[in-house]
Amino acid sequence: MRTLRQALLAIIVFAVLLLIFFVIYAAVRNRPQDLPWTRLDLGQPIGAFTGRKLAGLTDNFAECRALLQQAGVRYTMLPTVKSGEKCGYADGLRFAPGGTQQIEFSPGRLGVSCPVAAGLAMWEWNILQPAAQKHFGARVERIEHLGSYSCRRLYGRSAGDWSEHATADAIDVAGFRLSDGTHVTVLGDWAGGGPKAAFLREVRTGACKLFSTVLSPDYNAAHRDHLHLDQAGRGEMGWRACR
């Protein structure tokens, strides 16, 4: 029993010291986004808890909309969709032109859940455009995708867990069109060398800071042609996956 108490005390002391470290670190560097209790700001650089705060928006559509508006993202809300017991969404939206989110999507008229939209906006500003400038000296103008909402289970199985696509909480990204005409695809360029492969890996790894789940061709053959990005509602402290 004494050993157990000592172990619990050690855990508590470690947690307190870690908390003090985060507070001091965030204060010295003026980075409130590195603290777990500060309000998310989509216009700020990615912080230590940004991804978890984005995931926490799954159950707070009003806050998610307010954050998009604060960041200058224009959008239109989508009607509620309900299909069966597990499929549908009530927090769907579509990016609208003229705001701070400027990348187009192909096919157009993409509808996603609000937390996915928030993650995509931050991905554009913090990850995609810097990586495109670094590797190509150009901007990403268009994201090519394989869709978001789809009432199905994982991998299209007839049984088992439901996919995040069933609630529009996921998007499958297949490729990118850049301002200099460069075309990058997951299927055609992931396994190759050079700047295209480096770009794809950089934007995949960067997405892991913003989405609950990121799956690439490194995960399995089912993802050989796309990057799966989702905001699974596991709560702000839930587990995350990056493959």
From TrEMBL:
Keywords: Membrane, Transmembrane, Transmembrane helix
Superkingdom field: Bacteria
Segments passing through the bilayer: 7-28
Sequence ranges assigned to domain Extensin-like C-terminal in this UniProt record: 63-243
A matching Pfam family: Extensin-like_C
Protein name per its UniProtKB record: Extensin family protein
Species of provenance: Sphingomonas naasensis
